Amino acid sequence: MRIIVGVTGGIAAYKAAHLVRSFTEAGHDVRVIPTQSSLNFVGAATWEALTGQPATTSVFEDVDQVAHVKLGQEADLIVIAPATADFVSKIATGRADDLLSASVLVATCPVVVAPAMHTEMWRNPATVANVSTLRERGIHVLEPASGRLTGKDSGPGRLPEPEDIAAFALSVSQINQDLAGLKVVITAGGTHEPLDPVRFLGNNSSGLQGIKLAEAAKVRGADVTLIAGVVTVPLPHGLDVRHATTALDIERDVNDLAPGADVVIMAAAIADFRPVKRLDAKIKKVQGQEPEPIRLTKNPDILAGLAANRQRPGQIIVGFAAETGDETGTVLDHGRAKALRKKADLLVVNEVGDGLGFGTPHNTVTILDAAGEPVGETTGDKLAVSHAILDHVAKLAADNRKN
């Protein structure tokens, strides 16, 4: 695959070397197009050594090759990392006064933009509007990470890690619009079941797997609504998002949206139990007295209810089972039993605990059908896992269309 990596003039330009290396080591033909200002951070010799290709900046170089048109036309993927606020503005307004912006303007391949800038720049209404414009035109703009920026500043605006940029960019380039026209509802995150005004029952779910499923489904053409429970990672822009806190909140939103959905993916880690009563005042610790026992009641089984009462013909229901093995069976044993009880079309089983599943960037899952039989298994970052799950969803949807 022919990949253009555009590097613009930010301090994070040095990280692009790792991105370039990941692409070249995967066997792709990579050419770096730096902006003139980026050469103040990383010189052209570095890019030429890493790629074996010239690293030019001007539309007036290689004029006989019409490089300012040819490069963008022939590229299979363009990744701009880091993308400064200035460059985001430039391509949003269609300017083409250097080789990189001209290549973007003529490109018909997927374009991925990884912004890196100070928090105030990222949040400025001009940048917000420019990013919105790019997304409306089909350019994939990643959310910046939060963390240490230049100097003592810290906050959102940090360049995402190169391996995350590479994974997202390659996933975008290798998929088709096989979910186009489908309305997909996805739940993500954990729930907080209140004990009193300051305490709750919860879990360690970050919501990352569900969020990556939503991003992947959107890239594949679906009309996505994300029901976000309690999440600890940034929510993506460009999606219809509903916010929920408790299991009953999620049940309300799912029941509201399910009648219009072709696919419902229950990726949220919903609490199985909630306190029978939420106390109006904080539970006090009284010297010499043990606290009163907390009585729990079951939360509704939203997944089983969806599968038993499908809202439209051919509706696809996908559940998740976060399991731990115990003396009664393995993770997969418990997953099979749950698949038979829930009767969802697919059940994604993953082991959690001790650094597995919750709060990690990677996941290992086994995908079961309604009979509890394995139909797939995958390991990788959560975006790659999302696409593997959606491959099975897309196949079910295609089979439904045939029937």
Automatic annotation (TrEMBL):
CTP binds at residues 272, 282, 300-303, 320, 338, 342. PANTHER family: HOMO-OLIGOMERIC FLAVIN CONTAINING CYS DECARBOXYLASE FAMILY, PHOSPHOPANTOTHENOYLCYSTEINE DECARBOXYLASE. It holds the Pfam family Flavoprotein. Residues 1-183 are annotated as: Phosphopantothenoylcysteine decarboxylase. It catalyses: (R)-4'-phosphopantothenate + L-cysteine + CTP = N-[(R)-4-phosphopantothenoyl]-L-cysteine + CMP + diphosphate + H(+); N-[(R)-4-phosphopantothenoyl]-L-cysteine + H(+) = (R)-4'-phosphopantetheine + CO2. InterPro entries: CoaB-like_sf, CoaBC, DNA/pantothenate-metab_flavo_C, Flavin_trans-like, Flavoprotein. Pathway: Cofactor biosynthesis; coenzyme A biosynthesis; CoA from (R)-pantothenate: step 2/5; Cofactor biosynthesis; coenzyme A biosynthesis; CoA from (R)-pantothenate: step 3/5. Gene3D superfamilies: CoaB-like (3.40.50.10300), Flavin prenyltransferase-like (3.40.50.1950). Residues 179-395 form the DNA/pantothenate metabolism flavoprotein C-terminal domain. In the N-terminal section; belongs to the HFCD (homo-oligomeric flavin containing Cys decarboxylase) superfamily. In the C-terminal section; belongs to the PPC synthetase family. Its EC number is 4.1.1.36, 6.3.2.5. NCBIfam families: coaBC_dfp. It comes from Populibacterium corticicola. This is Coenzyme A biosynthesis bifunctional protein CoaBC. Residues 184-403 are annotated as: Phosphopantothenate--cysteine ligase. The lineage of its organism: Bacteria, Bacillati, Actinomycetota, Actinomycetes, Micrococcales. Transmembrane segments: none annotated. Keywords: Decarboxylase, Flavoprotein, FMN, Ligase, Lyase, Magnesium, Metal-binding, Multifunctional enzyme. GO terms for molecular function: phosphopantothenate--cysteine ligase activity; phosphopantothenoylcysteine decarboxylase activity. Its cofactor is FMN; Mg(2+).
